[in-house]
Amino acid sequence: MPQPLKQQKLSDVILAQLENMIIEGSLQPGEKLLPERELASQFQVSRPSLREAIQKLEAKGLVTRKQGGGTFVSKAIMKSFADPLFELMANNTESQFDLLEFRHGIEGMASYYAAMRGTSADFTLIQTKHDLIGSCQLEDDYREEAKAVYEFYLAICAASHNAVILHIGRSMSALLIDNIEQNLTMLSKKPEIFSKITDYRKNLLEAIISGKPQKAWGASHRHLAFIEEVLLKLTQEHSRMERSMRRM
């Protein structure tokens, strides 16, 4: 005989919604949750049910509480990416090229799905982040420019509406920003290159906003392939100079 269906506890329903918000990126590591009263009002539930759901989140290690300071999404959920190995890779030339190859895949997929699934709000954010790169370039600060470029690509990851792509992008923020900064520092030896990179990035932006997935993927690939080619030439030139100096 079929068994009677058990009604799901309200706290479990709230828990599932909060977990989905963390997965989709609506709630980010370190972000403070709204006060209980406001959150209960948003979910249209009682405060005891909400409190029970938050206690379950805390038991799972997804949130932490500060006495008198509120409830925060745990920063520890990204701890597997805060590894000494990543710091080691950040200072290794070959690993930098490996990371650039990795970006070919992740940024290409993000661009493809952003063009396919992005909303008008997503496209507005991507455009805003793109424009901020130009503002940072005026400051001649490669670290700030690297952060702006990363934020541009993270907006594309968010527009892909793929939780895995978004969280991989977020979790590797430090490594990716370091990679972009090192690339910019190397490319500064050939200032004429920057205008070409700007053009490649504009092509990527236009392909995404116009909703052309294949074109967006191709634009992302050509952009990174160009950077990789220039960096390889610069690295070879640097190696030749070092050998010449040793001979001298």
Would you kindly provide a written description of the structure presented here, covering whatever features stand out?
The chain is mostly helical and 248 residues long. Helix content is 73%, strand content 3%. It is built from eleven helices and two strands, in the order αααββαααααααα. The protein has a two-stranded antiparallel ribbon. Strand 1 and strand 2 form a beta hairpin. The longest helix has 35 residues, at 213-247. It is elongated.
Task: List its salient traits.
mainly alpha, two-stranded antiparallel sheet, 73% helix
Structural class: mainly alpha
Total strands: 2
Q: Total helix count?
A: 11
The 3D shape can be described as elongated
Would you identify the regions where 5 or more consecutive residues have pLDDT less than 50? Answer: none
- Strand-residue proportion: under 5%
Tell me about the largest β-sheet: 2 strands, antiparallel
Indicate the radius of gyration in whole angstroms.
Answer: 22 Å
Q: Give the integer mean of the pLDDT values.
A: 85
Helix percent band? over 70%
Distance between the termini: 90 Å
Instruction: Give the helices and strands as they follow along the chain.
Output: HHHEEHHHHHHHH
Order of neighbouring strands in the sheet with most strands: 1-2
Question: Brief overview, please?
Answer:
The protein is mainly alpha-helical and 248 residues long.
Question: Helix and strand layout, with pairings?
Answer:
Elements: H1 10-24, H2 36-43, H3 47-59, E1 63-66, E2 70-73, H4 84-90, H5 93-117, H6 120-139, H7 142-159, H8 163-171, H9 173-187, H10 193-209, H11 213-247
Antiparallel strand pairs: 1-2
Helix pairs in contact: 1-3, 2-3, 5-7, 5-10, 5-11, 6-7, 6-10, 7-8, 7-9, 10-11
